[in-house]
Specification:
The protein is of the alpha/beta class. It contains 14 helices and 29 strands. Among the domains are: about 210 residues, FAD/NAD(P)-binding domain; about 110 residues, Glutaredoxin, CATH 3.40.30.120. The radius of gyration is 24 Å and the shape is globular. The chain binds flavin-adenine dinucleotide. Flavin-adenine dinucleotide binds next to helix 1, strand 2, strand 3, strand 9 and helix 8.
């Protein structure tokens, strides 16, 4: 018997989970197939940024994360072997997106919350112990076959399939997607520790760019610390990946079996690569299946969650018949450019630390300390291409999320007012400027409008952040996409119809 579904998600990591929740929120039936019979219990990602936190808010798990599962980072310091500071990233406790800029956490805890959220939704079906072995598009749908844990074959038919099946993606191979590999790879021993007694680490996150052993020390979320040790030239992986090696390398930090538990040790190869085609017809790729980055910027999973957020609203519009399939080509166009930028940043950081040669490290130190102020800011790249108001300087920027008050409720904008296509203005409700037919079209997208501000505005800007951001934007009206990027701005309230008409033309365009 073949089970039918709207979207079939392959892989139940954080990206597949988030995508399933977001699509189910739009009302679609989602079936997820995961080959592992049980969740992966060990830590991997430890950092997520404020934009990712807003995505997790949309997925309904951010409050639970913030409730004791996140440690907010202050500084991320890069020191040479002598202790001189080469780089210092300062993270603000409140980012543009309404969450702290840098959040340290344990991936299994996040996956546990996403799993529980997804299972609470009637239109999500998760089947564990199902390894996808065949994906074939035919007759306006996709046939998928999976091997079950008991050796049987289960068959499915979906309108779309998304491969969220990780770095060794079967779905990627099955659509023959070519991969661009930048050939930047290093092996690192990852050691996760649970200290018996909490200790204050300041700064919370440190990179020690010492050529004798490049080392990372970061929070692994509340109650955990992560150390990462680079494999030195000539060092055998089998020697590095041993518990006694891990304890030996931890000893200089006074971490030993008497005061800490070793949660795990494993050697990972960090890579920099992405697929060139993220879509073949009705089959798409997201998360590690589509890209892998060195972890120095803490962005691998964040990129995957951005994929899920981007793809969810586009699949929704295409499934509803509001936009042609060509809209899905903008998914790859937008996400590939963003991912390339983030991988470039992570590689630039990797080039600072992955230096085992003392002379090269001395030259690096001299050049960095002579020419650079150590204060640095991680990039918050917006979108450069895609579904954007052409020629508009605001288009593609990350839009603010403020704390607001309306109708007796006080909270973050997305929770209190709503999310999706959003018109924002300091000059009153911008939807009032739309003619009836255009207003009806915008409402059919699920669009909302908000007159925001201090004083008597219908939506009160509690901490003034929205007002400041909108003033600085220079636009009277800002149109925000469902994934929190700005589509474009209008100079006056009266120009709102032109902005919404431009969006309509862009979404209905048959060219990607
Ligand atoms: C040491 C380390 C540190 C990291 N630090 C960070 C960080 O600080 N911040 C950050 O953002 N990211 C970080 N990452 C990256 C992050 O862990 C990954 O990007 C993230 O797990 C990818 O999620 P995913 O859902 O795409 O894939 P995965 O989590 O790999 O999930 C894929 C799932 O697909 C399943 N699957 C595979 N093949 C099939 C099949 N044929 N059929 C059915 N199921 C299948 C797998 O069993 C798996 O459960 C780090 C990674 C590592 C290794």
């Amino acid at each position: 018997m073949t089970s039918e579904t709207d979207v079939l998600v392959v892989g139940w990591g954080p990206v597949g989970q988030t995508l399933a929740i977001l699509l189910a929120g739009h009302g679609w039936r989602v079936t997820a197939l995961e080959r592992q019979p049980a969740p992966y219990p060990l830590p991997r990602a430890v950092h997520l940024d404020h934009e990712t936190a807003r995505i997790l808010q949309a997925a309904g798990v951010a409050d639970a994360m913030a409730d004791g599962r996140i440690e907010t980072a202050d500084f991320y310091e890069w020191r040479n072997g002598k202790g001189d500071v080469l780089l210092r990233f300062t993270s603000r406790p409140m980012g543009i997106c309404g969450w702290p800029e840098a959040n340290m956490f344990a991936q299994p805890e996040l996956e546990g919350l996403l799993d529980a959220k997804a299972r609470s939704l009637a239109n999500v079906t998760l089947l564990r112990g199902h390894e996808v072995a065949s994906v074939v598009e035919r007759d306006g749908g996709v046939d998928v076959a999976a091997r079950t844990a008991d050796g049987a074959t289960a068959e499915f038919r979906a309108r779309f399939v998304v491969g969220c099946d990780g770095a060794n993606s079967f779905v990627r191979t099955s659509i023959g997607a070519p991969v661009t590999d930048l050939g930047f790879f290093y092996d690192w021993l990852i050691v996760d520790v649970r200290p018996h007694v909490p200790k204050l680490w300041s700064p919370l996150n440190i990179q020690i760019c010492d050529p004798t052993r490049p080392t990372t020390l970061v929070s692994g979320g509340p109650g955990r610390r992560r150390w990462e040790f680079m494999r030195l030239p000539g060092e055998a992986i089998e020697d590095l990946n041993r518990a006694d090696t891990a304890w030996r390398l931890l000893a200089p930090w006074d971490v030993h079996p008497g005061n800490a538990d070793l949660e795990r040790h494993t050697v990972y190869r960090f890579q920099a690569r992405w697929v060139d085609s993220w879509r073949k017809g009705r089959v798409l790729l997201a998360g590690d299946a589509a890209h892998q980055t060195p972890p120095f910027a803490g962005q691998g999973m964040c990129a995957g969650l951005r994929d899920a957020m981007n793809l969810a609203w586009k699949l929704d519009l295409v499934l509803r018949g509001h936009a042609p399939d060509a809209l899905l080509d903008t998914y790859a166009e937008e996400r590939r450019a963003h991912v390339r930028g983030m991988i470039g940043f992570a590689m630039a950081l990797g080039r600072v630390i992955c230096v085992p040669d003392p002379a090269e490290a001395d030259a690096r130190d001299a050049s960095m300390m002579a020419t650079r102020d150590p204060q640095a800011t991680p990039p918050l790249p917006g979108l450069l291409v895609g579904v954007l108001h052409e020629g508009d300087p605001l288009a593609g920027k990350v839009c603010v999320q403020a704390r607001v008050r309306t109708g007796g409720r006080d909270g973050l904008f997305d929770d209190v007012v709503g999310r999706g296509w959003t018109l924002l203005s300091l000059d009153g409700d911008p939807s009032q400027a739309l003619p009836a037919e255009l207003a009806a079209w915008f409402a059919s997208l699920g669009g909302i409008a908000a007159g925001i501000g201090t004083g008597g505005a219908p939506i009160g800007d509690v901490d003034g952040r929205a007002t400041a951001w909108l003033r600085e934007s220079g636009a009277a009206v800002v149109l925000q996409r469902p994934d929190f990027y700005v589509f474009g701005g209008a100079p006056t309230l009266a120009d709102t119809p032109a902005l919404v008409t431009a969006l309509r033309a862009r979404l209905e365009s048959r060219a990607s």
